[in-house]
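ok so i was messing around last nite and threw this chain in just to see what happens. nothing serious, just curious
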Amino acid sequence: MTVWLTDRGAALGRPLTAGRAPREPDVAHFRAAVSELVAEFTEFGNKDAQSAEHMLARRLGENHFTAVLEATPDGRDETVARLLSEVRTYAPGPRSASSIAALIRISMLAQIDALWWGSDPGYATDADVLDAPELIDLDELAAAGKLKFSYRHQAGTLWLRAARSAERRALPGRSPRTAGIWLARTTPQAVAWLNQLADDFAMVAPADTPALWVTSLARSVEHQRRLRELGYVAPLPSAHCVGYAFDVEMAWYRRFHAHRWLRGLLLDLQRAGEVNVIDEGQAWHVCLRPAMVHGSRGHRRS
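result:
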């Protein structure tokens, strides 16, 4: 564990297994095509789901999307059917995507995560996450002073929920308006990467900007399904369920004029091939690329 958290010049993981990996589809080209696609849906209203579904079905047949969709674990046809179903059943709400265009952006870019990690078995239950020996406990690291970023647990009792509600009224803006992390466990690679991002953010953000705030880490498939039932956009398969995705607060940093710096850092790291990022509104989803985890690069960024 010490190596993961202190050796910033080390690779982010174990060596790749012998043999040549299959060539990855051009995800940068896919992202650009998704951006153009989403722009065409910005005028669709919340009641236009049927029209949006028909238009999306037509567009997804284009070559821009084929390579990534075919390489997902479920294959192109099943993946497209699922995407169309999500648009068809879209219902606006406080937990859902803010618009049909936002839903399409999130769902389409999540296919890059599926391409990278969808074939890996996820943690089926919350107990599996808690018992996994390869995951590390953030509370222990925080107590030892080995975390550069902030987080908090979900309020598990009525008393704690009431206390946080009172805090928001008395001290609005003191912390992000987020439920908190369900299970404070993740992979050592995620912690190492987030610690580095926190350092980078602290160097460029305006003075007195709070530390990087993480809102979600490893999840079980069980929990991902709970989120879907509650109305959240929670794709399956999900890189959260294998420990290589996390969500970073974004909207709260507007009050410190720091959100543009954080956004710029994340987009730069995406262009550098380290991660896939998805703008989900209040928070941004971040997924580590397998090459970052398996250590095929000789060193981390510095």
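not much to say yet. The radius of gyration is 19 Å.
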